[in-house]
Amino acid sequence: MYVIANHPFQDPPSPSSSAAAIRWSRGKLLGKGTYGKVYIGIPRTPNLPLMAVKFTPEYNAKFLKLEHRILAEFRLNPAIIQCFGAQITQEDGGPRIYNLLLEYAPCGSLSDLIAAAVAALLLPPTSSRKPVRGGRKEEEGLVGLGHGLGWVGFNDVAGYNDVAGQVLFLLGYIRLIRQFCLPHQHLTDFINGVGRRLTTSD
Ligand SMILES: Nc1ncnc2c1ncn2[C@@H]1O[C@H](COP(=O)(O)OP(=O)(O)OP(=O)(O)O)[C@@H](O)[C@H]1O
Question: What is the ipTM of this complex?
Protein backbone atom coordinates (compact mmCIF):
# COMPACT_ATOMS: atom_id res chain seq x y z
CA MET A 1 0.00 0.00 0.00
CA TYR A 2 1.40 3.39 -1.00
CA VAL A 3 0.42 6.64 0.70
CA ILE A 4 -0.30 9.21 -2.00
CA ALA A 5 -1.50 12.12 0.12
CA ASN A 6 -2.03 13.01 3.74
CA HIS A 7 -4.82 15.22 4.95
CA PRO A 8 -3.58 16.37 8.32
CA PHE A 9 -6.19 17.04 10.88
CA GLN A 10 -5.57 20.80 10.94
CA ASP A 11 -6.34 21.12 7.25
CA PRO A 12 -8.92 18.54 6.27
CA PRO A 13 -10.08 19.82 2.87
CA SER A 14 -6.78 19.94 0.99
CA PRO A 15 -4.10 17.24 0.67
CA SER A 16 -0.67 18.10 2.00
CA SER A 17 2.39 16.18 0.95
CA SER A 18 4.47 17.86 3.66
CA ALA A 19 2.46 16.29 6.49
CA ALA A 20 4.38 13.60 8.30
CA ALA A 21 2.93 10.29 7.11
CA ILE A 22 1.18 8.21 9.68
CA ARG A 23 2.21 4.66 8.91
CA TRP A 24 -0.18 1.84 9.63
CA SER A 25 -1.26 -1.52 8.31
CA ARG A 26 -4.71 -2.97 7.90
CA GLY A 27 -5.98 -5.41 10.53
CA LYS A 28 -9.28 -7.25 10.74
CA LEU A 29 -12.60 -5.93 9.45
CA LEU A 30 -14.57 -4.20 12.22
CA GLY A 31 -17.76 -3.53 10.31
CA LYS A 32 -19.42 -1.88 7.39
CA GLY A 33 -21.46 1.31 7.33
CA THR A 34 -23.33 3.23 4.68
CA TYR A 35 -20.21 5.11 3.58
CA GLY A 36 -17.48 2.51 3.75
CA LYS A 37 -15.83 -0.42 5.47
CA VAL A 38 -13.99 -0.05 8.76
CA TYR A 39 -10.80 -1.98 9.56
CA ILE A 40 -8.50 -2.04 12.55
CA GLY A 41 -5.49 0.17 11.76
CA ILE A 42 -2.34 -1.20 13.35
CA PRO A 43 0.07 1.70 13.93
CA ARG A 44 3.57 1.52 12.46
CA THR A 45 4.46 5.00 13.68
CA PRO A 46 5.63 5.34 17.31
CA ASN A 47 3.19 6.73 19.91
CA LEU A 48 0.08 6.15 17.83
CA PRO A 49 -2.76 4.17 19.41
CA LEU A 50 -4.73 1.46 17.69
CA MET A 51 -7.01 3.01 15.07
CA ALA A 52 -10.25 2.30 13.27
CA VAL A 53 -9.72 3.10 9.59
CA LYS A 54 -12.84 3.88 7.61
CA PHE A 55 -12.21 3.69 3.90
CA THR A 56 -13.88 3.98 0.54
CA PRO A 57 -12.73 4.61 -3.06
CA GLU A 58 -11.77 8.26 -3.40
CA TYR A 59 -14.41 8.95 -6.08
CA ASN A 60 -17.04 7.98 -3.50
CA ALA A 61 -15.54 9.71 -0.46
CA LYS A 62 -17.77 12.79 -0.25
CA PHE A 63 -19.32 11.79 3.06
CA LEU A 64 -16.09 10.56 4.65
CA LYS A 65 -14.58 13.95 3.80
CA LEU A 66 -17.53 15.65 5.45
CA GLU A 67 -17.11 13.44 8.51
CA HIS A 68 -13.44 14.44 8.60
CA ARG A 69 -14.42 18.10 8.54
CA ILE A 70 -16.97 17.69 11.32
CA LEU A 71 -14.53 15.78 13.52
CA ALA A 72 -11.96 18.51 12.93
CA GLU A 73 -14.33 20.92 14.66
CA PHE A 74 -14.25 18.74 17.76
CA ARG A 75 -10.54 18.07 17.83
CA LEU A 76 -9.17 17.37 21.33
CA ASN A 77 -12.66 17.29 22.82
CA PRO A 78 -12.42 14.41 25.29
CA ALA A 79 -16.09 13.51 24.83
CA ILE A 80 -15.73 12.90 21.12
CA ILE A 81 -13.81 10.26 19.26
CA GLN A 82 -10.57 11.59 17.80
CA CYS A 83 -9.60 11.62 14.17
CA PHE A 84 -5.90 11.42 13.31
CA GLY A 85 -6.38 12.68 9.77
CA ALA A 86 -7.05 11.15 6.39
CA GLN A 87 -4.85 9.52 3.78
CA ILE A 88 -5.23 8.63 0.16
CA THR A 89 -3.56 5.32 -0.65
CA GLN A 90 -3.20 3.06 -3.64
CA GLU A 91 -2.30 -0.58 -3.96
CA ASP A 92 -0.72 -2.10 -7.07
CA GLY A 93 -2.51 -0.01 -9.67
CA GLY A 94 -5.87 -0.35 -7.87
CA PRO A 95 -8.23 2.58 -7.29
CA ARG A 96 -7.23 5.49 -5.09
CA ILE A 97 -8.62 4.87 -1.60
CA TYR A 98 -9.66 7.53 0.90
CA ASN A 99 -8.86 6.41 4.49
CA LEU A 100 -10.22 8.20 7.55
CA LEU A 101 -8.01 7.44 10.55
CA LEU A 102 -10.09 7.32 13.74
CA GLU A 103 -9.48 6.55 17.36
CA TYR A 104 -10.41 2.92 17.98
CA ALA A 105 -13.38 2.51 20.33
CA PRO A 106 -13.23 -0.99 21.80
CA CYS A 107 -16.70 -0.90 23.39
CA GLY A 108 -18.84 -0.08 20.35
CA SER A 109 -21.12 2.88 19.78
CA LEU A 110 -23.53 4.74 22.01
CA SER A 111 -26.37 3.27 19.97
CA ASP A 112 -25.00 -0.22 20.75
CA LEU A 113 -25.05 0.73 24.40
CA ILE A 114 -28.59 2.08 24.27
CA ALA A 115 -29.74 -1.00 22.35
CA ALA A 116 -28.16 -3.15 25.06
CA ALA A 117 -29.89 -1.14 27.76
CA VAL A 118 -33.21 -1.43 25.96
CA ALA A 119 -32.63 -5.16 25.57
CA ALA A 120 -31.95 -5.42 29.29
CA LEU A 121 -35.25 -3.66 29.97
CA LEU A 122 -37.27 -5.77 27.57
CA LEU A 123 -35.80 -9.14 28.39
CA PRO A 124 -37.11 -11.29 31.25
CA PRO A 125 -35.36 -11.13 34.67
CA THR A 126 -31.71 -12.18 35.00
CA SER A 127 -32.37 -15.78 35.96
CA SER A 128 -34.03 -16.53 32.62
CA ARG A 129 -31.66 -14.43 30.49
CA LYS A 130 -29.06 -17.16 30.02
CA PRO A 131 -28.75 -18.24 26.37
CA VAL A 132 -30.76 -21.35 25.76
CA ARG A 133 -28.98 -24.18 24.00
CA GLY A 134 -30.24 -24.31 20.45
CA GLY A 135 -31.66 -20.77 20.70
CA ARG A 136 -31.36 -18.37 17.79
CA LYS A 137 -27.91 -16.81 17.41
CA GLU A 138 -29.17 -13.19 17.39
CA GLU A 139 -31.15 -13.85 20.48
CA GLU A 140 -28.08 -15.14 22.28
CA GLY A 141 -26.10 -12.11 21.18
CA LEU A 142 -28.77 -9.80 22.47
CA VAL A 143 -28.92 -11.60 25.77
CA GLY A 144 -25.15 -11.45 26.09
CA LEU A 145 -25.08 -7.73 25.39
CA GLY A 146 -28.02 -6.91 27.60
CA HIS A 147 -26.60 -8.94 30.42
CA GLY A 148 -23.06 -7.62 30.21
CA LEU A 149 -23.56 -3.97 29.39
CA GLY A 150 -27.16 -2.99 29.93
CA TRP A 151 -27.57 -1.16 33.15
CA VAL A 152 -23.91 -0.51 33.78
CA GLY A 153 -23.64 1.34 30.48
CA PHE A 154 -26.90 3.14 30.97
CA ASN A 155 -25.91 4.35 34.40
CA ASP A 156 -22.51 5.44 33.14
CA VAL A 157 -24.08 7.65 30.52
CA ALA A 158 -26.90 8.91 32.70
CA GLY A 159 -24.36 9.71 35.40
CA TYR A 160 -22.38 11.89 33.07
CA ASN A 161 -22.79 14.97 35.12
CA ASP A 162 -22.66 18.11 33.03
CA VAL A 163 -24.71 19.77 30.36
CA ALA A 164 -22.60 18.41 27.50
CA GLY A 165 -23.09 14.91 28.84
CA GLN A 166 -26.86 15.31 28.88
CA VAL A 167 -26.82 16.63 25.31
CA LEU A 168 -24.68 13.73 24.11
CA PHE A 169 -27.02 11.29 25.80
CA LEU A 170 -29.95 12.85 23.92
CA LEU A 171 -28.02 12.66 20.65
CA GLY A 172 -27.72 8.94 21.21
CA TYR A 173 -31.49 8.68 21.40
CA ILE A 174 -31.86 10.75 18.24
CA ARG A 175 -29.62 8.26 16.44
CA LEU A 176 -31.69 5.34 17.65
CA ILE A 177 -34.90 7.04 16.51
CA ARG A 178 -33.32 7.90 13.15
CA GLN A 179 -32.52 4.26 12.55
CA PHE A 180 -36.18 3.38 12.74
CA CYS A 181 -37.99 6.44 11.40
CA LEU A 182 -35.94 9.06 9.60
CA PRO A 183 -34.11 9.19 6.28
CA HIS A 184 -30.34 8.84 6.48
CA GLN A 185 -28.45 11.94 7.55
CA HIS A 186 -24.75 12.32 7.78
CA LEU A 187 -25.06 14.03 11.13
CA THR A 188 -25.57 10.60 12.61
CA ASP A 189 -21.97 9.73 11.82
CA PHE A 190 -20.96 12.46 14.17
CA ILE A 191 -23.34 11.13 16.77
CA ASN A 192 -21.79 7.69 16.29
CA GLY A 193 -18.43 9.14 17.11
CA VAL A 194 -19.79 10.72 20.26
CA GLY A 195 -21.23 7.43 21.34
CA ARG A 196 -18.08 5.47 20.75
CA ARG A 197 -16.06 7.90 22.80
CA LEU A 198 -18.53 7.81 25.66
CA THR A 199 -18.52 4.05 25.76
CA THR A 200 -14.75 3.61 26.02
CA SER A 201 -13.63 2.42 29.41
CA ASP A 202 -10.89 5.03 30.05
N1 LIG B 1 -13.95 4.25 15.85
C2 LIG B 1 -14.38 2.99 15.79
N3 LIG B 1 -13.92 2.08 16.67
C4 LIG B 1 -14.34 0.79 16.61
N5 LIG B 1 -15.21 0.32 15.70
C6 LIG B 1 -15.70 1.18 14.80
C7 LIG B 1 -15.32 2.55 14.79
N8 LIG B 1 -15.96 3.17 13.78
C9 LIG B 1 -16.71 2.22 13.20
N10 LIG B 1 -16.56 1.02 13.80
C11 LIG B 1 -17.19 -0.26 13.41
O12 LIG B 1 -17.47 -0.23 12.03
C13 LIG B 1 -18.88 -0.35 11.78
C14 LIG B 1 -19.27 0.59 10.66
O15 LIG B 1 -19.13 1.92 11.12
P16 LIG B 1 -19.64 3.15 10.32
O17 LIG B 1 -19.42 4.36 11.15
O18 LIG B 1 -19.04 3.14 8.95
O19 LIG B 1 -21.17 2.86 10.07
P20 LIG B 1 -22.39 2.77 11.07
O21 LIG B 1 -22.34 3.94 11.96
O22 LIG B 1 -22.39 1.42 11.72
O23 LIG B 1 -23.61 2.83 10.09
P24 LIG B 1 -24.08 4.06 9.17
O25 LIG B 1 -22.90 4.50 8.35
O26 LIG B 1 -25.14 3.45 8.35
O27 LIG B 1 -24.57 5.13 10.10
C28 LIG B 1 -19.53 -0.01 13.11
O29 LIG B 1 -20.77 -0.65 13.25
C30 LIG B 1 -18.52 -0.50 14.11
O31 LIG B 1 -18.65 -1.90 14.29
Answer: 0.96
